[in-house]
Amino acid sequence: MGRITLDKVQKKFGEVEVIPPLDLTIEDGEFVVFVGPSGCGKSTLLRLIAGLEDVSGGEIRIDGKPATDLPPAKRGLAMVFQSYALYPHMSVRKNIAFPMKMAGMDQAEQDRRIAKAAEALNLTDYLDRRPGQLSGGQRQRVAIGRAIVREPAAFLFDEPLSNLDAALRVGMRMEISELHSTLKTTMVYVTHDQVEAMTMADKIVVLRAGNIEQVGSPLELYKAPRNTFVAGFIGSPKMNLLTGAIADKHNATTIGIRPEHLDVVESGGTFTGRVGVAEHLGSDTFFHVHIPEMSEPMTVRAGGEVGLRHGDTIHLEPRAEHIHRFDAQGLRIA
Amino acid sequence: MARAISNRKKIMWTALSWGIGLLIFFPILWTFLTSFKSEATAISDPPVWFFFDWTTQNYSDVLERSNYPLALMNSIIIAVGSTLLGIIIAVPAAWAMAFVPGKKTKDVLLWMLSTKMLPAVGVLYPLVLIAKYFGVMDSRILLIVVLMLINLPIIVWMLYTYFREIPGEILEAARMDGAGLKNEIIYVLTPMAVPGIASTILLNIILAWNEAFWTIILTTVNAAPLTKFISSFSAPEGLFYAKLSAASIMAIAPILIMGWFSQKQLVRGLTFGAVK
User: Fold this and answer.
1) Looking at beta carbons, which residues of chain B come within 8 Å of A99?
2) Out of A9, A283, B130, B252, which residue is the most buried by the measure of CB atoms under 10 Å away?
3) What residues contact B263, with CB distance under 8 A and at least 6 apart?
């Protein structure tokens, strides 16, 4: 069981308040992703849950039991670090065995669990190697192996895929999701990559400057961002945020239109502009369209092969039902 | 490092490094050769290189006239003792500075290093007076304490640099894996710091072994280490070059052999952890 409750949890470094009092409940078995730009406090929040940082105020409960003053060793959580943080002087086997050794588990049970984890993570052939002799992806697997053998109440991941190359990252993303569906253990995952957040999470927590901007499922965040920050942060490429006359027409200070909700039309249309840079991804093409009355180019998603070239004039029509409206404070207007 | 070095340059650099190496080695070689000469050959002009009557007379004379075993024993006890005492004090200090640094940690480190810039004679009188007051002149314990104090800044600095190399995340991982402070230190930190601690011990034994200023001044007979043993052969009457050389060779041989066998550790130690 791994229900984690944060009650008015606060963190200050000296005079600087990194995390203002914050409430959050992570349900048992949930895959929760903390996402936000760098410096938003997401890693600090994870470290508070882990016990690697002391809270400045508020309370943390794990399975209803107060954990605020427990040292990390006593919280029953496992963590996977960005740098893997393997013990360089121990073999893979000993690395994986370490948490069980600390827990005083008997040798036969340790061996059984090591064998099971190694098989699940394709590490059987590497058990007697040192971490230094492994590739980045293998090290990451060892770190995960070390986390799962103890059967913790919850897993904490601190940007675990940042040090891997793009192809490996996609693969490991799948493996972690797979692991979650098999183990059904609570996972708290920190990343700055909104694609990772969207693809893996049951629940996303968007953070900015230590504040929770929105909590919700990936699709809730995509369909109904609570404010302009979440609107701009979730979704790739970014949502077009427009102000001025066009927004006034919709009785809003800012309106948001996603690149995929703009249709290219023959003539007329709400916007008329000139095609700038095009990004061809094969399946999709993203055009940057320069519209005279706007300071920033708009991004438009079109099909894989469109006969548009740099400098062409283009007419665009947004889908009315997908226009997001925000007020002067940047908050969503329902 | 993809720097193309031509063969000619390579040969030049190799020759130059051998040249410098030999230059540094020459005094030891000359002392070694002189120690096997008669006193007359030792001061002959022009000097004789290899073709003389090799004799071990100097060695037996030196052994007969002085107490080499006592001096050797004193050197070992003082060098090893001061180093171990230093390590015991420096490990917790370096540990705290590396892993729980405060605002003034850098200042403390620099202040410690600055004491190494103080000329030793500056504290000669106070030290001698204190030693006399406590009646510990010419005792091993005095030298162990004094040499420990002199080398302590270096020991702390070296250990601090090694500990700093250990990534904090690995210690945090140990904490997450259920290790308390004691297990974290025993199973994770110490094994990772062993090479650093070993190099520090080696280097400081050498420093303490070679220390001549305090060892010569603060001892007479009982605690006199090999440094004092050598200096006792540089008699004002002179003309004992061969015996002086024999004594020197006997004094430096143990440390030279130890250094030879632990070259790898020492290089690491001398680069203060820069080489991984």
Assistant:
1) 177-178
2) A9
3) none
Contact across the interface for A87 and B176, Cβ inside 8 Å: no
Q: Cα Rg for chain A, rounded, in angstroms?
A: 24
CA distance B184 to chain A (A): 10
Return all residues near B24 (Cβ < 8 A) that are at least 6 apart. none
Question: What single-letter amino acid sits at B227?
Answer: T
| Cβ contact A3:A187 at 8 Å | no
Confidence of residue B230 (pLDDT cuts 50, 70, 90): confident
Mark yes or no for CB contact A73/B191 under 8 Å.
Answer: no
- Is A146 at the interface with chain B, CB within 8 A? yes
CB A77 within 8 A of CB A155: yes
- Cα(A323)–Cα(B11) distance, rounded to whole angstroms? 74
Q: In this complex, which of A74, A79, A150 lies closest to B173 when CB atoms are compared?
A: A79
Q: Which two tokens stand for residue B172?
A: 């945090």
Query: Dihedral of the CA atoms A33, A39, A40, A43 (nearest 10)?
Result: 40
Q: Render pLDDT for B245-268 as a digit per residue (tens, 0 to 9).
A: 888 898 888 888 888 888 777 776
Q: If you measure CA to CA, which chain A residue comes closest to B194?
A: A89
Token pair for A202: 């049951």
Q: Using CA atoms, how far apart are residues B164 and A72, in angstroms rounded to an integer? A: 22
- Asked casually if ipTM beats, i.e. exceeds, 0.90, the reply is no
* pLDDT at res. A304: 66
Best residue of B166, B172, B177, B189 to probe chain A, by most A CBs closer than 10 Å: B177
Q: Is pLDDT above 60 for A238?
A: yes
Beta-carbon neighbour count of residue A106 at 10 Å? 9
Residue B48 lies in a domain: no
Calculate the dihedral angle through the C-alpha atoms of A132, A135, A141, A147, rounding to the nearest 10 degrees. 30
Count up the domains in chain B and report the number. 1
Q: What values do phi and psi take at B46, rounded to 5?
A: -65, 155
CA dist., res. A57 & res. A264, Å (int): 53
Cβ–Cβ contacts within 10 Å for residue B271, how many? 12
Indicate whether A39 pLDDT > 60. yes
Q: Domain of B162?
A: 66-232
Q: Does B35 reside within a domain?
A: no
Name the token pair of A147. Answer: 């986390």
Boundaries of every domain in chain A: 4-230, 238-326
Is residue B76 domain-resident? yes
Q: What is the CATH number of the domain that holds B115?
A: 1.10.3720.10
A73 shares contact with chain B (CB less than 8 Å):
yes
Q: From the CA of B157, how many Å to the nearest CA of chain A?
A: 24
Supply angle C-alpha B233, B238, B243, rounded to 5. Answer: 40
State the Cα–Cα distance between residues B60 and A57, nearest whole angstrom: 78
- Is B211 within the bounds of a domain? yes
A4-230 domain in CATH 3.90.1720.10? no
Chain B CB contacts of A81 below 8 Å: 169, 172-173
Topology of domain A238-326 in CATH is OB fold (Dihydrolipoamide Acetyltransferase, E2P) (2.40.50)
Per residue in B140-153, pLDDT (tens digit) is: 999 999 999 999 99
